[in-house]
Amino acid sequence: MHPMERLRMVARASGEDPGLLAREAAAALAGCAGDPRALVMACRRLVDRQSTSGPLWWLAARVVASPDPATEARISAELLREDVTPAIVARSLPDDAVLTVLGWPEQVTEALRLRGDARVLVVDSLGDGSPLVAALDGIGSDAALVPESGIGAAVAASTLVLLDASAVGPDGFLAVTGSRAAAAVAYTEEIPVWVVAGVGRILPPRLWGAMVGRVAALGDPWDADWEIVPIELATAVVGPEGPLSPADALAGVDCPDAPELTGTGSG
User: Fold this and answer.
1) How distant is the alpha carbon of residue 175 from its chain centre?
2) 231 with 179: CB under 8 angstroms?
């Protein structure tokens, strides 16, 4: 497939795992790295069209700031492919924990699959909860479906809330709708909230601000599939290095604050 056609496919994709989208985009960006102007325009179009994908922002920033963008695209794709975050989460979960999760969280779902013995309350966010319950039942986990109206009760009955982040920034994280309510209830009930943020999901201030602005422009927040959750509601951020305080996780940001991506988007 021609690189530009692959980029158009990524830009049009809907409901895909952010990490998978970024890996697909990396291959395409490597193919057009010989034209710096076209590369910058392609990266800006990607983050405009897929504004809620933290890994795409991360990838685009690393590629446009690199003196060798083709090599950087390949290195970034490999880092995404080899992300050990789900395995780290699975190993870090306390024994006998009762977990609340929302919808079908890609990173968290893989961690639960690896763990195999989790007790999970699955909130039916965006209608994705029922398939996850079926999948967890299939591997022997004790999973129960909770309607969105029961999110507060589910959190209160849990010992740990696991929230899947598409991106984490200095003052918040981007997660599926309902995550703010879940985190707020957990905070008041003194229940830990782990934000799962694998490779490519920790963003520097400029990129985070640009992402927040684009998310706000998508429409009314009460109709959105994603929402910004204040970082102070998180107990820990879990990535490849294991559970860290939010401050320590943010200190590990590994992409530049690329100004090329934060102007007015095109296309």
Assistant:
1) 7
2) no
Distances (CA, A) of 118 to 53, 105, 106: 28, 15, 16
Q: What are phi and psi of 210, to 5 degrees?
A: -65, -40
Which amino acid, 109?
T
Taking only the tens of pLDDT, the chain with its 267 residues reads: 445 555 555 545 555 677 778 888 888 888 777 788 888 988 998 888 889 999 999 999 999 999 999 999 999 999 999 999 999 999 999 999 999 999 999 999 999 999 988 999 999 998 989 999 999 999 989 999 999 999 999 999 999 999 999 999 999 999 999 999 999 999 999 999 999 999 999 999 999 999 999 898 888 888 889 999 999 999 999 999 999 999 999 999 999 999 989 864 433
Architecture of the domain whose range is 3-82: Up-down Bundle (1.20)
CATH topology identical between 3-82 and 85-251:
no
The Cα 20–Cα 10 span in angstroms is 10
Calpha distance 234→97 (Å, rounded): 18
Q: How far apart are CA 149 and CA 260, in angstroms?
A: 42
Please, what is the angle between helix 18-31 and helix 106-115, to 10°? Answer: 120
CATH number of 85-251: 3.40.50.10470
CA pseudo-torsion sign 189, 193, 246, 94 = positive
CB atoms within 10 A of CB 131: 15
Task: Enumerate residues 6+ apart whose C-beta is below 8 A from 88.
Answer: 238, 239, 240, 241, 242
Q: Measured between alpha carbons, how far is 13 from 219 in angstroms, rounded to an integer? A: 19
